[in-house]
Design brief:
about 325 residues; alpha/beta; 6-stranded mixed beta sheet; 8 helices; 13 strands
Length: about 325
């Protein structure tokens, strides 16, 4: 395995120059789950027990020893950049961050600003990519809004349908470089990469080697924080809702609904409101799934405790 494609360079190599143990190899963390840390090395992928005393993040370079096809981490190499925030899973050693936002129904400058702040704090180079340009009727207005919020940042309006703007992005896909994708689901990240590289990016929060020798990671927002993002995007609707006659107004046929009146008066865009309803539905669904998992785990722990108690009582008798 050629680690140069995964970003192995002189800065990483110098940490191995005084390596006295020939069994220790350089490796890069490509994924994490509840059981294993997967590390790519010159000998292929090694699995490390998740309970290792070392806690690397995806993208970290490590000193790793191969023992019976199992990896043993000896050290985490200091990262050159680190993408970290409560809304995403941490990623280390990223060169470029693609902040991807749709110009269609999910466009919101506040969301772009949030991701841009995360990108600048990482030490990586941010690039803003506005997708679905073919569905945008007011492109110049939206470009102006983004440019005003992101001075000095490269901004591209692209379309996977008409192919406009795609060729300008090829310069970022260089062998040995790592690109992280930031953006909500539905912003067009996977379609963008497929058009640019011919590769269908199915995995989230994993380092993937593209056919052109560049490494990429699709960093989807953590479910718990989608609620926070939604609150920022839809604060105008929440503000209107405070003026509804009834506190529990569902903004349907209730009398005195300030939200419906704003839509009828042309103050509030109806597609923006429909996006608000979909987001609320998704958030409620995800919260129910999380609560179901918690309840299932509580039942499992309760049964395990009951078994142990029953066994101990038998021993006493």
């Amino acid at each position: 395995m050629n680690l140069d494609q995964y970003g192995y360079n002189q800065l990483i190599e110098k940490h191995f120059n005084d390596n006295k143990n020939s069994a220790i190899l350089p490796g890069r963390v490509i994924s994490l789950d509840d059981k294993f840390i997967k590390v790519i090395t010159q000998d292929g992928v090694l699995q490390v027990n998740e309970k290792s005393r070392f806690k690397p993040v995806v993208g970290d370079w490590v000193k790793i020893e191969k023992k019976d096809n199992i990896g043993l981490i000896h050290e985490i190499i200091p990262s050159q950049s680190k993408l970290t925030h409560k809304t995403i899973k941490d990623v280390a050693n990223v060169n470029t961050i693609f902040i991807v936002s749709s110009l269609a129904d999910r466009f919101n400058v506040k969301n772009i600003e949030k991701y841009l702040d995360i990108a600048w704090n990482s030490g990586a180079f941010p690039v803003i990519i506005l997708t679905k340009a073919d569905l945008c009727d007011d492109l110049s207005t939206k470009l102006y809004e983004v440019k005003r919020s992101a001075p000095g940042v490269d901004i591209y309006a692209v379309s996977s349908v008409t192919k406009v703007g795609l060729s300008e992005l090829q310069k970022y896909f260089k062998v040995g470089k790592t690109i992280a994708l930031l953006g909500v689901k539905g912003s067009g990240k996977t379609s963008l990469i497929k058009e640019l590289t011919g590769f269908e990016l199915k995995q989230s929060n994993q380092l993937v080697l593209l056919p052109n020798g560049c490494v990429i990671i699709n960093n989807d927002p953590i479910e718990d924080v989608k609620k926070e993002i939604a609150e920022d995007i839809f604060d105008d609707i929440d503000e209107l809702a405070r003026n509804c006659r009834f506190k529990d107004c569902q903004h349907g046929s209730e009398p005195g609904c300030a939200v419906r009146k704003a839509i009828e008066d042309g103050i509030l865009d109806e597609s923006h409101y429909e996006h608000y309803i979909r987001s609320k539905r998704d958030i409620n669904f995800n919260e129910e799934k999380i609560n179901d998992k918690i309840r299932t785990e509580q039942i499992r722990q309760g049964r395990e405790f009951a078994k142990q108690t029953k066994y101990k009582n038998k021993e006493k008798w």
